[in-house]
Amino acid sequence: MDNSVKIEQIRTLIGPLLEDEEVELIDIELKGNVGNQVLRIFVDVEGGINLSRCESLSREISSILDMDDVMSGKYRLEVSSPGIDRPLKTINDFRRNTGKRIGLQLQDGRSFEGTIDVVDDVKISMVIDSGDHVKFPIDQVVSGKIILPF
Fold first, then answer.
1. What share of residues in the chain are helix, strand, coil (percent, to 5)?
2. What is the CB neighbour count within 10 angstroms for residue 127?
3. Which secondary-structure segment (H or E) carries 8?
4. How far is it, in rounded angstroms, from Cα 30 to Cα 75?
5. Most buried of 49, 97, 100, 127, CB within 10 angstroms?
6. Under DSSP, is residue 114 helix (H, G, I), strand (E, B) or coil?
């Protein structure tokens, strides 16, 4: 089974748990070879997730994965926060960061820096450094990242 199929299977299995716990799944990474893999699950909650919550989720996720025998052989499970400087990928990432300064790279090669103003279901509106308001369809965004103050 290739990693993308396995990741989708994991996403499906742990989705109900995360929904019940009101935790947002940010990303899943699977690295290494069968029998020696590292499965990283990045989660977040409003206001940020703490270590104790990640540990609790790790135990529950491990039980689910072991019960369904998703992972072949030995693996290491890491459940953690994606970090403050993580890439912005989903519409919820952009919503959660409304009012923050970000950098955006679009599919057409253009890039912008500015402050997220409004996020709806299909587009991001931001005030760029020139003071202009610009809008971008979310499906045109290649990458986004919070710009941390020095």
1. 30, 40, 30
2. 15
3. helix 3-20
4. 10
5. 49
6. strand
All structural domains of the chain, each given as residue ranges with its CATH number in brackets, are 3-80 (3.30.300.70), 87-146 (2.30.30.100)
Q: Which residues contact 77 (CB under 8 A, 6 or more apart)?
A: 39, 41, 58, 61, 62, 65
* Residue 13 one-letter amino acid: L
> Could you tell me the two tokens for 27?
């990303």
Phi, psi of 143 (to 5 degrees): -155, 155
Please report how the helices 51-67 and 3-20 are oriented relative to each other, as an axis angle in degrees rounded to 10.
120
Q: How far apart are the first and last CA of the chain?
A: 44
- CB–CB of 147/103 below 8 Å? yes
**What is the identity of the amino acid at 39?**
L
Residue 114 contacts residue 128 (beta carbons within 8 Å): yes
Chain segment 62-104, per-residue pLDDT in tens: 999 988 888 878 899 999 998 877 788 888 889 888 999 999 9
Spatial distance between the Cα atoms of 129 and 115, rounded to a whole number of angstroms:
8
Query: Which secondary-structure segment (H or E) carries 98?
Result: none
- The overall pTM is greater than 0.70: yes
Residue 85 dihedral angles phi and psi, to the nearest 5°: -105, 25
